[in-house]
Specification:
The complex is a heterodimer of chains A (about 290) and B (about 500). Chain A has about 290 residues and is mainly α. Chain A has one domain: Orthogonal Bundle (MetI-like fold), CATH 1.10.3720.10. Chain A is built from eleven helices and no strands. Chain B is built from 13 helices and 19 strands. Chain B has helices at about 1-20, 50-55, 110-120, 155-160, 225-235, 250-255, 280-290, 295-300, 330-340, 355-370, 385-390, 425-435, 440-455, and strands spanning about 30-35, 65-70, 75, 80-85, 90-95, 135-140, 145-150, 185-195, 195-200, 215-220, 240, 255-270, 305-310, 345-350, 375-380, 400-405, 460-470, 475, 495. In chain B, strands 11, 12, 13, 14, 15, 16 and 17 form a seven-stranded mixed beta sheet that branches. A four-stranded mixed beta sheet of chain B has the order 1-10-9-8, with helices on one face. In chain B, strands 4-5-7-6 form a four-stranded antiparallel beta sheet, with helices on one face. Classes of the chains: A mainly alpha (about 290), B alpha+beta (about 500). Chains A and B meet through loops of A and α5, α8, α10 and β15 of B.
Amino acid sequence: MSGAGSTERTFLRMALGHPAFVIGFVLSAVFVALALISFVWTPFDPTRLSIATKLQTPSLHHWFGTDHFGRDMFSMIMVGARVSIAVAFIAVGIGMIVGVPLGLYAAARRGSFIDEIIMRGNDLVFAFPSLLLAIMITAVFGPGAVNAIIAIGIFNVPVFARLSRGAALSLWTRDFILAARVAGKGAARISAEHILPNIANLLIVQGTIQFSLAILAEAALAYVGLGAQPPLPSWGRMLADAQTLISLAPHMALFPGFAIIITVLGLNLMGDGLRDLFDPKLRRER
Amino acid sequence: MTRTSIAAAAVSILALGLAFGPAPALAARTDASIGMQLEPPNLDPTGGAAAAIDEVVYANVFEGLTRFGADGSILPALAESWEISEDGLTYTFKLRSGAKFHDGSAFDAEDVKFSLNRARADDSTNAQKALFADIASVEVVDPATVKVTLSKPNGSFLFNMAWGDAVIVAPETAADNAAKPVGTGPFAFGEWVKGDRVDLVRNPDYWGEPVKLEKVTFKFISDPTAAFAAMMAGDLDAYPAFPAPENLTQFEADPRFAVIIGSSEGETILAMNNKKPPLDDIRVRQAITHAIDRQAIIDGALFGYGTPIGTHFAPHNPAYVDLTAQSAYDPEKSKALLAEAGVSDLTLSLKLPPPSYARRGGEIIAAQLREVGINTEITNVEWAQWLEDVFKGKNFDLTVISHTEPMDIGIYARDDYYFQYADPDFKKIMDDLANATDPAKRTELMQAAQKKIADDYVNAYLFQLPRTGVTNVKLKGLWPNSPTQANDMTGVYWEE
């Protein structure tokens, strides 16, 4: 037990010594914290309109100013963070839950017809323009946060399927898998017990990167009006609202724009950091 | 590069000036490019309902017997004058002599007969067939005189003939007008670059006073940001219906531009599905109207440009009655009415088409309804979806829309119209109005109609859509108001 504890402590120490990871983690944590706080407290009601105080520049009263309806921008950013994070989290979750088993199954049946079908199907989804797919889903089911989640989730499936198949393929030739097979374990059990734990690091790193891409995708969908519907605030829609007002009230575009940039940057840095930390070769060099 | 050549030009002008005295002033420009938000689907005003068709060709390429003036009055066009019989059934039009179609053929009474019969035929594709419904026959008396007999008196017949849908076309070219319009107007069709622009050129053989502009280009720029940039860069000389009211203050501050605030025929309403429970209960509809603060919507969605209305009628019309007080903002009354109707936990769908008055106005309305306990589920829809789902399918509770046709209170008498009102008493008023020719009687009936729909709280009447235009300060003669869907370029010129 103490051995495991010391490994964890080593990992933590290494993580703290990795500046990209620390910066990324802090930036991401700020937005996660904002999103969590927004459940219990926001400075103002983000859906309450007050036309009389519209387009105010940032002040002590309204930290990020007000938008064209007089809503408090800071409150909207907080709730918008919640929407972005929730959409991205569920969408990446869908991608993992569907994509990883598909990839593992394809790897277990490598070279077979079913492997071909799964992987070519993934290629097809991968090749399909993601925004077009989202627009199609929206045309059928109507716009909304749930349909944005489905659309983004579908783009994430092939990413995880390819990654897990590729990683699993290299493991299937290893001796410890051979030993498991000799011991009479089936392909499903080997995938779950031996392969999955060994590719978990890869999945976490990729998941972090996909998470940032999903936040960008959600903002893009909301920007064209296909994401969360009003009155629920969303970063992408805040940008769209600001578009015609940019010369009149630049703060309306700046704050949601920075919120997106900082979150995506934070997640990417964190993903890079995690990759370095998990990579045994790099770890040895340290 | 450009800067160098300007500097070089300045130096040479200076040199010329020193040598020969002041350089002569440049001649006034004779072309204008006009921005429009939507591209027309075709260019035949007798074969399509899209406002963009008339915005290009009305009064410019095509003319009718009568036409709208800038103030909405009815003026003679291809009919020089007319006589109305005592019983109001026969209209004898004396036609303009010397008028010619752009293909060179002469305009005469046969063309009028052809155009009117074509528009009212059973297989006609005219979008406003109701305008011609009362015509019993069209007779050619002589090449310059045409006699129209009505089946019953119709006080608005001359008004109907002024619509873009009632323009006169030539039998030889009528079928091709959608792509290559041939009319009698002061401008002839030049070129249509799909997705970009339509060019019109001056018609040298025009019967009336020749126009001052040699070429007019209508450019289609739907994105408000791009439209703003195009105006600022000088690519456009005017944008008569500028889509982003928030930019108007910037244009006002810039001496290069003039901002024209006029009124349009656009009654903007929160339409309610009158047959769908609980909106079939008049108390619920009345509660919704009292929950709405019109001024907040005008300030928030239109940056203050817009006139509150209390019924479906344009405030600049002499017959308008101000009924805004009847549905004044009163959230307490609204809550009381909802309680009386026994409605609680109400969630209504609110479908919003693309224009910013609808999208922004809808968000404000949703917030105001929330204050009285009505939740809304906002869905932003594209135009095609709106027409399919709301207008045809009637699959909605609430929607925000501007009705831009002139004098369109008659839509409340239509049986299968999307807000599903069609009240028999209202239909009676409209029938009486159609038969009335006496102006005083007509005004009385129009006011009765306005009161009837306000009393029945059919829809929530929000505001008259302003016509907010931006022009180069030197371009004069554009219509400030829009009595019909048109960009009449006949009186437009550059001030030197």
